[in-house]
Every structure is written in structure tokens, then in C-alpha cells.
């Protein structure tokens, strides 16, 4: 059984691991050619590595495997995080076609949904709750992929997407913990920690970009 102290520790470890491993991700990005070059349609004024999302992944995964319960749902969530980050990393290196990237995101989102991570009942204001039935699975996948791409589109200014996610995930962690939803609180806390750890390197002028590996992951 986890508690609020675990959430705080998970947040701190995720932040530290992400902060500490960004330089490793930068060197890897340079080695594989995942570089944003200066140009009329690009943001950086100097060549900048763009795979620091892998450092965020390291923070989330290490803290998650330590503090999240070892059940099938959380295992699937963490495995899906790896899958969606890999799709983004491949896009950072090879500039994948949009359809290929979308199919990869759908496959990654399907991992937790197949393990039961989905709402069975949807509640709407003034209408009440109703059973989603078989539509719960496809609607959850669509929802995850939609948010992944929203965060991806947001990632156009140094630190913007990671900053927004860090704030949103911190708020979600506080709300979840106040409702005694400790597992959800820890998951939100490690997400906030990973994003915050990257921001040490991602504030303007950014030494590296988190790339699609990071935006895919944080949106997921």
C-alpha cells in the first residue's frame, strides 16, 4: 500500500533521474543524428539534440517500478510508456510518416487498455452516468492518442509542453492523493517529476529538446 510520502519520494527520484540523465540522452542524440539544425523554419539558433525525452522516460520508469504497485494495470501503463517513447524516438531519428507514427501511438495506447486501464462508466454534468460497454476500449485509446498529439503540438517553444505537463500532473497528484487514490497520485507525481527534471535543461535557451520521445511520453 502506497501513501502520500511515497508520492513525494517518487516525484523527487523521477526528477533527479531525469535531470541527471539528460546529458546522456544528449550524447545519444548526437550519435544517432537526432539534431535540430538552425534554419528559417526551425526554433534553435545552434544545432540542438532532440531526444531528451528518453531521460524523462528513465525517471518515470525507475520511480514507477519502485513505488507503483506491481499489478497488471500499472505494469501495462509503464510498458506502454516505453512503447510510446520508442515511437517518438524513432520519429526523432527517422522522421516517420504521419500514419506510421499514429499507428505506433495507437499500439502503445492499446497496451494499458488491454490490461483493463479504461473507464467503464462515463459521467457527464447534468446528465449523469452511463455504461460505456464495448466502446470503453476504443474511446480510451482515442483519448490517449488525442492527448499525446495535443502535447506534441504544444512542444514548439522551449519548456512549454514540459512545463504545462509538470503543472497539470502536479495538480492531478494533489487531487488524487486528497481523494485517497494513492496509486493514481504516484503515477501523476512521477510524471510531474520527470517533466520537471528535464526542464532544468529545457528552459530557454534549451541545451536540448525532449523531442517526440518526450512529448509522446508526457502526453501518454
Topology (SSEs and partners):
Elements: H1 4-32, E1 35-36, E2 48-49, H2 53-67, H3 72-94, H4 98-114, E3 121-124, E4 128-131, H5 136-154, H6 160-178, H7 182-202, H8 211-219
Antiparallel strand pairs: 1-2, 3-4
Q: What can you see in these coordinates?
A:
- With 220 residues, the chain is mainly alpha-helical.
- The protein is built from eight helices and four strands.
- The protein has helices at residues 4-32, 53-67, 72-94, 98-114, 136-154, 160-178, 182-202, 211-219; strands spanning 35-36, 48-49, 121-124, 128-131.
- The strands form two sheets. Strands 1-2 form a two-stranded antiparallel ribbon.
- β3 and β4 (128-131) form a beta hairpin.
- The longest helix has 29 residues, at 4-32.
- The two termini are 25 Å apart.
Kindly estimate the percentage of residues that lie in beta strands according to DSSP. Answer: 5-15%
Q: How many E strands?
A: 4
Q: Enumerate how many helices there are, as a single number.
A: 8
Main beta sheet strand tally, sense and closure: 2 strands, antiparallel
Shape: globular
Structural class: mainly alpha
Low-confidence runs of at least 5 consecutive residues? none
What oligomeric state do these chains adopt? single chain
Return the string of H and E elements. HEEHHHEEHHHH
Rounded mean pLDDT score:
92
Cα gyration radius (Å): 17 Å
Cα separation of the termini: 25 Å
Helix % is: 55-70%
Strand line-up in the sheet with most strands: 1-2
